[in-house]
Amino acid sequence: MNYKIGITASLAFGCMASVAFATPSASDFRHQAMASDAFEIASSKIALGQSNNTGVVAFAKMMIHDHSLTTKHLLMGSGMTQADVDAKVRPGPDGKHAANDLVDQSHANMLDKLGQEKGKDFDSDYMSDQVSGHKDAVSLFEDYSKNGDNRVLKAWARKTLPKLKMHLAKAQAIDSKM
């Protein structure tokens, strides 16, 4: 009896896990990648004003440059403009970031927290966020490059993946020194 319950639970969990981790559609992939870019760029712009660590500042400049390029590519066919993206990541009149269809509440909160920090506290949180965000991005791009439903976007994800892995490695190296 317990054997059957265990198998049933395993099968049910396995089915839920496969649904939860299904490869996103081209539209969903584009949106998730743009959301990731938006956070990387916004948090890195904050880093330029909050960090005195030359390694962190250099990393932030690279994030702004590289993720601006990927955003430019992702905007094609998205129905959004750069001005739309900028408006969604810009803090409101109260200085707080608001959740919307591009920036979820968790990332809005992270941006607000980063904006309040300086020095070593900022550097540590920023780099930790970069490691976490790039792990997620690498997983997303690996999955889509293998299983995506749009041939052109799939090839672009495969081409972009090495740069994301390099970002992750650099973020981990800097974070390990915090």
Number of helices: 7
Q: Pick out the low-confidence regions.
A: 1-20
Indicate the CATH architecture.
Up-down Bundle
- Helicity, in percent? over 70%
CATH superfamily: Ferritin, core subunit, four-helix bundle
Strand/helix succession: HHHHHHH
CATH domain topology: Ferritin
The CATH class name reads Mainly Alpha
Distance between the termini: 52 Å
Mean pLDDT: 88
* Approximate shape: globular
Determine Rg (CA atoms, Å): 18 Å
Number of domains: 1
> What can be said about the biggest beta sheet?
none
Instruction: Specify the structural class.
Output: mainly alpha
Number of separate strands: 0
β-strand amount: under 5%
Précis, in short:
The chain is mainly α. It is 79% helix and 0% strand.
